[in-house]
Amino acid sequence: MKVRWKKLLGSVLALALLIGVMLPCGKVEAAQETLLNTYGSLFGYSGTCINLSQLRDANTLSHVKTHYNSITLENEMKPDAMLGYSPKLITKEAAVNAGYYVPSSCTETYLPAINFDTLDEVLRICYENGLSVRAHTLVWHSQTPDWFFRVGYSKDYGYVSAAQMDIRMEYYIKSIMNHVYTSKYGRIVYAWDVVNEYLHAENSGWQAIYGNVTTSPAFVKRAFQYAYDCINYFGLTDSVSLLYNDYNTYMEVDDVIKMIRYINSDRKICNGVGMQSHLGTNFPSVEYYTTALQSFVNAGFEVQITELDVVNKGDADQANYMYDLMSNILKVKKNGGNITGITFWGISDDVTWIKGQKPLLFSTLGVAKNAYYRVMDAYRDAGYGGGNTGNQPTLQNGWYYIKNVHSQKYLQTAGNAGGNSVNVEIGTGSGVAGQKWYVTNLGDGYITLKNGYGYMLDVEYGANNDGTNIQTYSTNGADAQKFKLMGTTNAGAYGIATKVSGNAKALDVYNWGTSDGVNVCQWTYYGKENQMWVFEPCYN
Predict the structure, then answer these.
(1) Is 197 a catalytic residue?
(2) Per-residue pLDDT tens over the stretch 379-388
(3) What's the pLDDT tens digit per position in 117-152?
(4) What contacts 300, CB < 8 A, 6 or more positions away?
(5) Catalytic choice (108, 307, 425, 536)
(6) pTM (two decimals)
(7) Which residues contact 452 (CB under 8 A, 6 or more apart)?
(8) Catalytic residue of the set 197, 302, 425, 536
(9) Per-residue b/e over 415-437, b at no fewer than 16 CB within 10 Å?
C-alpha cells in the first residue's frame, strides 16, 4: 500500500510540473520567537501588567503565557485595594487568629482587616499556569486610604504619631508578606516594590506624619527592614528582591542612589531600583534613559525595568524608539549589568491606562505592532538568538508561491506579465510564472523577490507613503527592492516589510480585498491577516 501511494504521489507531482498546476505545499514554519523565550530567557523575567478579570479570561491567559512568565497587578495589590476605601475593623485577637502579624508593641484594641480574596485567586491562577508575580506595592503615598493614618482609623480624628505609624506599617507589611509566603502558592512572588514613588510623594498621610521628602527617610528604611525580616524568616533572601520603585528615575539618579545607600547603610536590605519606564518618543531620549540605567548598574544595584510603555507620534515613531531603547538596555545587560526583569505596562493598546496613546507592543490581544517586531529585531541584532539577522525567519534561497492569509490568493503580476512598472496584485493560484518568486537572502536581514520573468518586486519610486504601489522592475540594487520578513502571531506566516520605510510599512492587500486583481500596496504594518503571507516552496 505504501509503495503504491509513493508511486501515485510521484506521478501526480510529475504531472503537476508538466502542466504548471500549483499543488498545496507545506508552510515554511517560523521560529516562534516570543518576548518570553527571548527577553524572558535573558533577563529571567518578561512581564506584563494585568488584573484578575483578565487573568480569568482563557484567551488573555494564553497570550500571557506565550509572551510572559511574570505579572504585576495594576491596582489590586495597592493599599486601597487591600484595606478598602473605608475601614473594616477587627479585634486584635481576631487578627492574630486570622494569621495576621501583630507587633508585640501594638496597643490598639482594633485593627484593620485586610482583604486577601483577589490576591489569593491571582496567586492560585499564576501558580497553576507557571507564572511568577511582582508584588506591587506596599508603601505608597497614593492609593493609601487616609483613614489608615488617623487616630482610631477614623477620618474624624487627627493623624497618629510617627511611633504609632511605625507599628501600623509593620502590621501591614508583615501581615501581607506572611500571608503570601505561608500560602502554598506564595513562592511564585519573586520581587516586591516595598516603597513606591517616595521621592515624588506629597499631600499624603506619610508626609503628614513623617515630614517632607528627603534622601534619608527613616520610615522608608524601616519599611525595607520589615520586608527584609519577612523574607529572612522564610529563607528567601537569595531568591526574592526588595526594590524601591519610582518614575522619572532618569531625572533623579543621584537622589535615588543616595536614598538606597542610606537604606543599606547598616546592611543590605534593598536590592535596588525598579525603573518605572513610562516614556515618550519626545522625552526622555534613549541616551538620557540609558545613562540613568548605567548609573544604577555602576552603583551596584539590581535593576528591574518596570511599567514600560511609550507614548508616540505613530507606529513607526514608536517602533524606532523601542528598537533603540531595547538595543541600549541589551548592551548594558551584555556588559554585565544586573538587570533581572522587564515588565510592559499592559496587555495591549485597547486596555492601556494611557487612553488614546497606543503605547504598547500589541494593538489588541495577540495583534502585534511594528514596535513588537522591532523589539525582537533589537534582541537578535544585539547578538542573541542566532546572529545578526533581525527578526527575519529562516527562509532558504529558492522559488516560492506567496499566499495572502486573509484572501487565500497569491501574489502575482497583473496579466501574468513581465516587465518594468508591471502592477502587482493577488490572484487565484495557477502556477504561472507571474506567481513565482525567487527569494535571495542579502546577508543583512533583507531579501529580494524576483518573479518568474526575471523582474524584481519593487516599491514604486522608492516612496515611503501609505498606499504606494507595489510593482516589478529591473534589478537595480535600490532599497525599493529590499524587504524584511517579519514574524507574526500566525505560525508560518510573515509580514513583508519594506526597507524604504525602515520596516514600518509592509505589503498590504488594499482594503482587505479578496477578489482576483485586488491591488497590493505598501501600508503601515499592523500585523493583521491582509498583511500576512505564507511562502510555499515550488519549482520554477
Answers:
(1) yes
(2) 989 988 643 3
(3) 999 999 999 999 999 999 999 999 999 999 999 999
(4) none
(5) 307
(6) 0.70
(7) 418, 432, 433, 434, 435, 436, 437, 540
(8) 197
(9) ebeeeeebbbbbbebebbbbbbb
